[in-house]
Amino acid sequence: MIILGVDPGYGILGYGVLKIEGNRFHHLAHGVITTPKNLEMHKRLLMLKERFLKIIEEFEPDEVALEELFFFKNVKTALKVGEARGVILLTLAERNIRVEEYTPYQVKKAVTGNGKARKGQVQFMMKTLLNLEDIPRPDDAADALALAWCHAAHRKTGGTWFDQNKRY
């Protein structure tokens, strides 16, 4: 099974790809999709869709773990991230790819055991858990790998670890 983790954004979208074989999680790829700041929003969204589609075509994920839009101080930013999420969700729906959504708390809890972990802790755990040579960078790519890991762990346990702490 191939799981694609997606940390949505319109300027930077993080992705991480894991292959699950039995109890083993194998790192296939991670990275980011960026769009130019000076481009009009509708063109950025089109570029995002086209580049995201290339990732889907390359890795052919069975399922996608997507970060929920959880909390933003800036409403304007939240709306734009929501638009990017919409593009991602539509692209996945067009290809009939199953999507599960997770809060940042759930992802941090799955990866580090602490739902309030800092970004550096998540990056370190992704390096350790996936036996990577380096800490995955940038943060958006590490977060996307953590989303994929979270989903794989959730599938493996039948979701029971979420019930242990309802703060999500």
Descriptors:
single chain, 168 residues, alpha/beta, Nucleotidyltransferase, domain 5, five-stranded mixed beta sheet
Task: Please outline the helices and strands.
Blueprint (H helix, E strand, L loop, with lengths): L1 E6 L4 E10 L2 E11 L6 H19 L3 E5 L7 H20 L3 E5 L1 H9 L6 H11 L9 H19 L11
Parallel strand pairs: 1-4, 4-5
Antiparallel strand pairs: 1-2, 2-3
Helix pairs in contact: 1-2, 3-5, 4-5
Can you tell me the CATH topology?
Nucleotidyltransferase, domain 5
The unreliable regions are 163-168
Helix segment count? 5
Question: Any idea what the shape is?
Answer: globular
The beta-strand count equals 5
Sheet with most strands: 5 strands, mixed
What is the subunit organization of this protein? Answer: single chain
CATH level 4 superfamily:
Ribonuclease H-like superfamily/Ribonuclease H
User: What is the architecture at the second tier of CATH?
Assistant: 2-Layer Sandwich
- Along the chain, the helix and strand elements come as EEEHEHEHHH
Share in β-strands: 15-25%
Radius of gyration: 15 Å
Summarize the structure in words:
The chain is α/β, with parallel strands linked by helices. It has a single domain (2-164), classed as 2-Layer Sandwich (Nucleotidyltransferase, domain 5), CATH 3.30.420. 46% of the residues lie in helices and 22% in strands. A five-stranded mixed beta sheet has the order 3-2-1-4-5. α1 packs across α2. The longest helix has 20 residues, at 75-94. It starts with a strand and ends in an 11-residue tail after the last helix.
